Amino acid sequence: MKEDFLHYVWKFAKFNTKELKTTAGEHLQIIRLGTHNQHESGPDFFNSQIEIDNQRWAGNVEIHLKSSDWYAHGHEKDDAYQNVILHVVWEHDVDIYRTDQSVIPTLILKDVVEASAEKNYHQLMQNQLKWINCEADFNSFEELKLKSWLERVFVERLEEKSKLIQQMLHQSKNNWDEVLFLMLAKNFGLKINGEAFLSLAKSIPFQVLQKCAQSQLQLEALLFGQAHLLEKKDVENAYFLQLKNEYAYLVQKFQLKNKAVLPVQFYGARPTNFPSIRLAQLASLYHQNQHLFSALMNVKNSKEISKVLAIQLHDFWQTHYTFEKESKHRKKQLSANFIHLLIINTVAPIQFSFAKFTNNFELENSSIALLSNLPSEKNKVIEKYNALREQTATNALESQALLHLKKKYCDRHNCLQCNLGIELLGR
Fold this sequence. Notes:
By secondary structure, the chain is of the alpha/beta class. It has helices spanning 3-11, 69-72, 115-125, 143-171, 176-188, 190-202, 206-212, 216-226, 238-254, 275-288, 292-297, 302-308, 336-358, 361-372, 380-388, 396-410, 419-426, and strands spanning 20-21, 27-32, 35-36, 45-52, 55-66, 84-91, 106-108.
């Protein structure tokens, strides 16, 4: 038995509400169940109303598996719990007192819960060895209810990312351009080099980046140098030596003292994702778009974003993936798939965060619409959901929602915080 089941039983009144009695034998009537407190500290339900022996009480309700959990959680020392008017438990093993030594009335749910609710709960939770608890029923959910829940979960994912962006914004003293650079750098590095690229971006004062952006050569020298890629001694081509000399000049000019803490990795990356190529692309992007943040806040769709992200690399990179070895001529533009990843992981989240920051509801809706018009991502999680139910994810909004659903709900067995799990228990 988990405490969230008791929350579900109380929230949806899945118990016999007639002839209720407290553990002291007092007559109990529920007037108002209260508002579920899912995220804040304090009691589990706010603004509840009850009657005990014809005396009306207004306050909060706290729920535990055992009465003694009150003391195990230290609520007796917390003033936030002094307005609790009812303690709802599965098992009662000790009386609970307020600081004034008055007893807090207790209701035992075990004696009054609906048998069907408890049965459905145990059936759902017995499936924990499966990929997701509800996989046998996943194909039975109504299309409208499923899509509606996925939209809500997607917004929850954006809000979670927005909290991280707000932290970065605070650290940058409200410099949105700098936050964008940090996010783009991390996402240009993908999984293999994401943290290394973020470390690189943090090592560069943003004012220095802006000054160097006027010259593509200087910007490339700055990024490659800070990433430790200009320290090789066995490379003698003219372009590499030019970058090396330019970086030495920048170090002196701007008194650069710190480089990236984490080294970049070539091993395990495809040539198109080599850190040398991605850093060259990032340099070109900022050289060609010196007002990049403003540009990305005004885009409405992926076509407009693709125009902003259209870049032209130095000729050297058309025939190289690294400084050392020449390769066949190939343009190193940002692919459509890579642009989609940037939209999903950078553009949409920062648009959403900026919209919240400025109370721009039109931009907020636009940030959400961006992903609804992108194709679904392809990975093992999405493939598994689509195998359980054909076309569960038809666009990037839904695939992002499913990734969040799997990580935050299914993997943690938070079925009673999921609208789909709640529906199953109510059947």
